[in-house]
Amino acid sequence: MTILHCPACSATHKPERARWLCHCGSVLDVEYEKLQWKPKGRGVWKYRTLLPFAGKSITLDEGGTPLVKSERLGLKHLYLKLEGDNPTDSFKDRGTTVAISRAKAEGYKTVAVASTGNMGASVAAYAAHAGLKARVFVPQDTPKEKLAQILAYGARVKKVKGTFKDAVAAAWRDVEKNGSYLAMTGLNPFYNEGEKTVAYEIFEQLGAPDVVIVPMGTGGLISSIWKGFVELKKMKKIRKIPRMIGVQAKGCAPIVDAWRRGAAFATPKEKCETIASAILVKLPFSSRLALRAIRESGGVGIAVSDKEIIRAIRELGREGVFAEPASAATLAALHHVKPQQRQKIILVITGHGLKQPGAALA
Ligand SMILES: Cc1ncc(COP(=O)(O)O)c(C=O)c1O
Ligand SMILES: [Zn+2]
Does any ligand 1 atom lie closer than 6 A to the CB of residue 283? Predict the structure, then answer.
């Protein structure tokens, strides 16, 4: 049995059809009556007993990504979680498989999503695989490689004037007007549940890490990974939750700014600019959860410059890993903390470099 819990006003809701937000306007969190650790099979659905869907899954064999030990970055226990190895080349597939499985089971015919590119590509692919129509709302300056990927999966792409914030408003209108299923991180609580499997896999591959560094756009991924570790602790699999370090680009860092101010949630930015297009999010709707993850784990928020990100893409390249700018931001952030040689540190490399290859030529 699952229940939806509001982190802002503590209200609880049944997971009924078209329940996206709390009546207070906050995004929702999924909670379970009983946590059962019974990994079986492969990928995301290996952790079926800890996911909010029990029916036939819509899957492209997502998850089960490599955890590669770094050999060339000067630290003894540095590991790269290669989420670019997912079916559509980013971690989003973990959330999409859960959200689209529910959409199909609930009888929806169309799904809608606003995206900086990666979530749109993922939802387009899984909707295609499920035989559903997808409408993807993207900001005008979305990299053309990501647009090509979305189009290749047969989705309808709507370029929205403005930024991700405007794309979100357009997706909402589609949900309200046409009754589409909203398949988005944060706004769809089931999406985040799939993403938490990153934590379960790291635990199975390495045991409990000391530090996990995650790029933040909406703040959904970092809060999901943290939730995964919190659940592992509740199930007595680990003793200590790793420090969660959240990274944004200096040109667009509403969550890091809020962390520095000691605020409970982020204030939307008026203007944003960065090469890391995947995390260019002015209105981070999961900021409350992300800030809780950072604070309760004893972590920090770090903002890095585009110059540092570009340098980090090259450093990761020399390790044999091609990362998109948002993902390389994790290595740029590592240079801001004083890592200890004995610590086990994870960089979550969220998307493949071929998603935005132009950045490697910058
Ligand atoms: C490659 C990449 N990294 C990080 C993120 C940030 O994830 P979130 O919006 O859940 O914070 C995104 C989101 O689109 C992404 O595509
Ligand atoms: Zn509420």
Answer: no
